Amino acid sequence: MILILKPHINPETAEYRQLESHLARLQNIELRVHQVQGVEQTLTEVYLIGHTSALSIEDMQSLPGVDHVVRVSEEYRILGRHKDDNRSAYFDYQGVRFGQDTLNVFAGLCAVDSRKSVEEMMKALRDNGQVCTRMGAYKPRTSPYSFQGHGKNCLPYVFELAGKYEIKVIAMEITHESHLEEIQEALDKTGNPTGVMLQIGTRNTQNFELLKSVGRQQEFPVLLKRGFGITLDESLNAAEYLASEGNRKVIFGLRGMKTNIGDPHRNIVDFAHVSVVKRLTRMPVCIDPSHSVGSRSRGPEGILDIMHVTAQGVIAGANMILVDFHPEPPKALVDGPQALLLGELPQFLEDVRIARGAYNQRLSNSNRNSPS
Ligand code: PEP
Ligand code: MN
């Protein structure tokens, strides 16, 4: 059960202490307090964990400082979508809104290889009106002998160039909690010219200690990729780990599932789950067409499979697209074969705009026809 407190009530106020003394009398109930930072105000939510079935909503609602009460009937207590749950399904970061009704494109390098590639990429993004990108510094690789990413050494120039080209948010995978400090330090040293969205890759979806570390900080939002060989429920529970530690600025990423049944694509595309994740949770949903398809194959009409599946995700209501580009794919150190070319960026963005327009038309059509 969640008690959502009135906007001005927080653990420092007298009313909160009154509430706390009421709650202390409840048997077998543990309390967890969450502060939800919005643009204008910080909301406090108190989670009651344990034997809550005997508690009545009306009794809880009448306690001092309580605005309203949500009975959590499902799993994913914090990120889930519950009955009569009208809590917001968005967050703001660096002036960019991420929600279940917005769409943000994160085109960029799978792996940072050189300052030159980063600069060319970011310049192309700026010239095409983009404020988000992806930049891999820490790469989880199948072989220990493959390029592992430039790590913290590339962070200063990546962040500086982001400032120069007005990039506000960089999605960056981390594979160890120490990377969090390295990113924080590099941002401080460069004067915080940009923001970072921490990415947890599919190989770490159930790395619970990493999830806990990332969940304990609330500075950076998190993109959690679905685990490629586990159930959707298991991956959604992994997202809940982040939220249960305090960070609920979480985006859930679909990136295809590992199976030969998806051949010749690298993974079987799972974008039919966009609406499933939006129904079960309040998380914005990201699609990664690059790691799903894994190649530059195209249909007989000439459209790249990556663009086809992007459109499929967007027309189903996806909220974020993570997509690999590279100025010179043959020279890319990671995933060159699936990178789109900088010259393809305008076509890609236009294709996304067309698919988003079609999604909006589908929404209007549905609203017109839904029984009132
Ligand atoms: C990536 O986005 O670079 C990546 C490694 O993705 P995934 O974790 O989905 O394989
Ligand atoms: Mn990759």
Structural write-up:
Helix 6 packs parallel to helix 7 (232-244) and helix 10 packs parallel to helix 11 (345-369). The chain is globular, with a radius of gyration of 22 Å. It has 11 helices and 15 strands. The protein starts with a strand and ends with a helix. The model has no long low-confidence stretch (mean pLDDT 95). The protein has 2 domains: 2-72, Phospho-2-dehydro-3-deoxyheptonate aldolase, domain 1 (Alpha-Beta Plaits, 2-Layer Sandwich); 92-369, Aldolase class I (TIM Barrel, Alpha-Beta Barrel). Helix 7 links the parallel strand 11 and strand 12. It has helices at residues 14-24, 57-61, 115-127, 155-164, 177-189, 208-216, 232-244, 274-280, 289-293, 305-315, 345-369, and strands at 2-5, 29-37, 42-50, 66-70, 90-93, 96-99, 104-108, 132-134, 169-173, 195-200, 222-225, 250-254, 285-287, 320-326, 340-341. The strands form 3 sheets. Strands 7, 8, 9, 10, 11, 12, 13, 14 and 15 form a 9-stranded parallel sheet that branches. A 4-stranded antiparallel sheet has the order 2-3-1-4. The chain has 372 residues and is an alpha/beta fold. The structure holds phosphoenolpyruvate and manganese (II) ion. The site of manganese (II) ion has 4 residues, from loops.
